[in-house]
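Objective 1b: paired records.
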Amino acid sequence: MAARNIQTASLAHFAAKGAVAGDLGVLLDSTVSVSRNSGLLASAADSRQVDFKGGIGYVSQAPSEADPGAANIVAIDLRYVSQHGLADRSVLVNSDEIFYRADFVERSLGLRLEYASAPVWGLKGRVGYSEHVDRSGIARNARGLTGDGSIAWSPSPFLTLTIQAARSFSGTQDIYSNGIKTFSWGLAASAQPAEGWTAALQFNRRNRTFQYDLQAAAPLTQSRTEDLSTASTSLAHTVAERVSVSLLLEHRWRASNLQSYRYRGTSATLSLSIPITR
């Protein structure tokens, strides 16, 4: 019988922007997250992660009635991610025993661009050079161009269509996320059928190349690639001024060059959101 695993993720997020002089502004964004797994093998990927982004550049108010806090931005962007593993796992690497821990540090310097032409369309993107330092014990480092971008189009005030793409060296809160090169793209549509209600449809596809496979008996001997596709639908309702409830249904299917990693699965997630703002 296949082993079961429950992954629990919790996070705290902070974001702020402010003017220095005229249209020269500073941008700050920070997230602290913790990921834990109930399965014995998956628990080797338990981790605590700090993700910090900071930027300085042109920040001008965007003319958006739907999002008064939106801004047009052209900024130099610095990112620093530090992940600390919370558990060890003994693995064999070239016949030597090492103790794997899901540790890495990633640094990136890039250019951030955001532009909105209210209320019809908007563009967001970032491209930069990243260095991924693998501190797991296997030491498979990576460096090169990374980035993400999205274009949103609103043909009506109640409907938004979005296309996005990204390239990265690790996936946030993915089990065995260390040592992965990822390219992803997606399509999404969101609508507001009634006041206080938001419905969405989304499709994402991620191509992932593993620099090593922690789940294999010998992590460096097998070359593993996979295409992970996710189709989802969600419904959210604002029940009070700052309280919302949402239901998310997801169906995932994974294609891999290794037969044992192929699967399909469906999940349902019920969430309660209470933002704290000033």
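Objective 1b, second protein:
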Amino acid sequence: MSRPSTITRASSMPTTTSDSLFTTRRAHLEDLGLVNALHHACSLDSRYARYATPRRELKPSEFARLVHPAAGDIWITTLTDGPESTETAVALTHLLKTRTVGVYELAVLVGDPWQGQGLGARLTDQALAWAAENPNCRTVTAMFGASNRRALRILSRRNVTIPAANAGVIDVTLPLPERS
């Protein structure tokens, strides 16, 4: 499998990048159909691992809040099938501001067929690299269910100390790469 694209930083926003298999770009309101198609294609376990609920889609008002620049950043990773292709969403990455100044929360949803192949890990690394370049971001956190083996594996491979779960939920602070 080809490595997915790298999110790069150009002034205040990552640019669209792609390789032969994936394109990762900032999500826009017009992407709601792609995002909801990804949600519908994900198993109940995958959606529950991401949201701690079995939600099948995002409402237009919810997605509008997520893609608003004041919320932080949300990227969509798509697969391109060929010359006459249509976009198919394979992953969604959120790096959203929290109520605490300088603290952002990271969340990644990877479609079932693409899980276990390193895509979630690479998107996590890309989001953390972007966060390190964002002067407004001091800390990145992630919250997920204690049974989310894939999230635990991504973090343990990065030598992140996993705190004890509280009510079945792990809330962890992620180390940022060194700022350039």
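Helices lie at 32-41, 44-51, 60-67, 119-133, 149-156. The chain is about 25% helix and 30% strand.
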